[in-house]
Specification:
Helix content is 45%, strand content 19%. It has 15 helices and 14 strands. The strands form two sheets. Strands 3-4-5-6-2-1-7 form a seven-stranded mixed beta sheet. Strands 9-10-11-8-12-13-14 form a seven-stranded mixed beta sheet, sandwiched between helices. Strand 4 and strand 5 form a beta hairpin. The chain is flat, with a radius of gyration of 29 Å. The chain binds guanosine-5'-diphosphate. This is tRNA modification GTPase MnmE.
Length: 455
């Protein structure tokens, strides 16, 4: 049983309402000391899951006119008794209400502590708690929808299925190890070997989905590269004008790290190093071949621009050489003028889009292509619904997959059964790490420190 915590759960500042939330076994007792319902009922007489109008008192002094929601555990967010006080949303008034609650016996909640309790009390597993953070931080529709799937428990369900399959294998292995006299020599029956194959395949698909998930959640790092004067800066401007730029992010003082984020059909496109290609009066800089190399390595996606009005030259070829064929879209710019370009030598580029940055031709097709690249290009099976977005999940699944692959090796080499038992335990433990059945304080501190106060 934990103590009773409280926090302001709405953003700081002036607003229509502010919510002070309490969770813990003393929540209702604390409310009794400070709340008088208009109905003149005692707090203990108020119905569960009711909203009650009344006044908050600090001794004889009225602090605010409020609505109080009463939610008794275990059917609540934390599985504990929760009281939410809807007060007026001024900066000072919410602070005063919080102070009153604290003075009456609650303790101030740490960052993310409500959700941490939901996890500790078994209301959410760790993947669901992480989905709550992602949901709060979500910047586009697509990333929010992935977080909602995870919050619903889709990932946990999949992990449970894998665990069940491994536990079946484990049961067999343990019987063999515990009762050698039974003389079961066939190391593993066929259906259990199938279970192991399934675990390898499913973890592999999930691991592969991470790239896509990460791009949807964190944005697609996109670099526009090409030799000077092909129209990179013009292209950048037309993308920025067309799409609503979400953030212009300038970290530190160097121009190098400017990143602009545009929302492309729900996917954040992070245009990296836009300072390098932006032209202003005091900044005439171009991306040389060396710089392109750096950008190409950093990016999830490269937009390689060539100039329709000129012949290919050494510089185009040098940049082309450095490009990775699996993450590039080729753009033939200046198609509004007569063509002198022959793209035959640029063999790495599988997809070309004809555009004119100046005349705004082909920008739609380019955007469609970028969208397809993110949505389907990264995973082999685009119908696969479950996508992981968290690097912690990815590395735990990699450990699971590796451990099961070790089991196959043990079987192939005819090694003793106890080695299989060791790897099975490793595989099961790694799966339990994903859902948080195995966790440690440091990891939990790290995860919940990403929350905001009051969640
Ligand atoms: P960057 O050096 O690659 O950033 O190229 P800029 O965007 O500065 O463009 C170089 C020159 O090409 C400028 O004079 C642009 O106006 C011109 N330009 C860019 N895009 C087009 C286009 O689609 N058609 C034509 N005709 N000119 C373009």
């Amino acid at each position: 049983m934990f103590d009773t915590i409280a926090a302001i759960s709405t953003p700081r500042g002036e607003g229509g309402i502010g919510i002070v939330r309490m969770s813990g076994s003393d929540s209702l007792c604390i409310l009794t000391k400070i709340f008088k319902p208009i109905s003149k009922k005692e707090v203990s007489e108020l119905r569960n899951f009711s909203i009650n109008y009344g006044h908050l008192y600090d001794g004889d002094e009225i602090i605010d006119e409020v609505l109080v929601s009463i939610m008794k555990g275990p059917n609540t967010y934390t599985k504990e008794d929760i009281v939410e006080i809807n007060c007026h949303g001024g900066f000072l008034i919410t602070e005063k209400v919080l102070e009153l609650v604290l003075k009456s016996g609650a303790r101030i909640a740490e960052i993310g502590e409500f959700t941490r309790r939901a996890f500790m009390n078994g209301r959410l597993d760790l993947t669901q708690a992480e989905a709550v953070i992602d949901l709060i931080h979500g910047k586009t529709d697509k990333s929010i929808s992935l977080s909602l799937n995870q919050l619903r428990g889709d990932l946990r369900e999949q992990i449970d299925i894998l665990k069940k399959q491994l536990l079946d294998v484990s049961a067999h292995v343990n019987v063999v190890l515990d009762y050698p006299e039974e003389g079961i020599d066939d190391p593993l029956p066929h259906d259990l070997v199938e279970n192991l194959h399934n675990v390898v395949n499913t973890t592999d698909t999930l691991i592969k989905s991470y790239n896509k998930g990460k791009m949807i959640k964190e944005g697609v790092k996109t670099a526009i590269v090409g030799k000077p004067n092909v129209g990179k800066s013009s292209l950048l401007n037309s993308i920025l004008r067309e799409e609503r730029a979400i953030v212009t992010h300038i970290a530190g003082t160097t121009r190098d790290v400017i990143e602009e984020v545009v929302n492309l059909n729900g996917i954040p496109l992070v245009l990296v190093d836009t300072a390098g290609i932006r032209k202003t009066d005091d900044l005439v800089e171009n991306i040389g071949v060396e710089k392109s190399k750096e950008l190409i390595e950093k990016a999830d996606l490269v937009l390689f621009v060539v100039d329709n009005s000129r012949e290919l030259d050494e510089e185009d070829l040098k940049i082309h050489e450095r490009i990775h064929a699996d993450k590039v879209i080729g753009l033939i710019n200046k198609t509004d003028v007569e063509s002198k370009l022959d793209i035959t030598p640029l063999t790495k580029i599988k997809k070309w889009i004809k555009i004119s940055a100046l005349e705004k031709i082909g920008i739609d097709s380019m955007e469609k292509e970028i969208y397809n690249y993110v949505i389907s290009g990264q995973v082999e099976d685009s119908s696969q619904k479950l996508v992981i977005t968290n690097v912690r999940h990815k590395s735990a699944l990699e450990k699971t997959k590796q451990a099961v692959e070790n089991i196959f090796e043990t079987i192939d080499m005819g090694l003793p059964m106890d080695l299989i038992a060791v790897d099975l335990k490793e595989a099961l433990d790694s799966l339990s790490e994903v859902t948080g059945e195995i966790s440690n304080e440091d990891l939990l501190d790290h995860i919940f420190s990403n929350f905001c106060v009051g969640k």
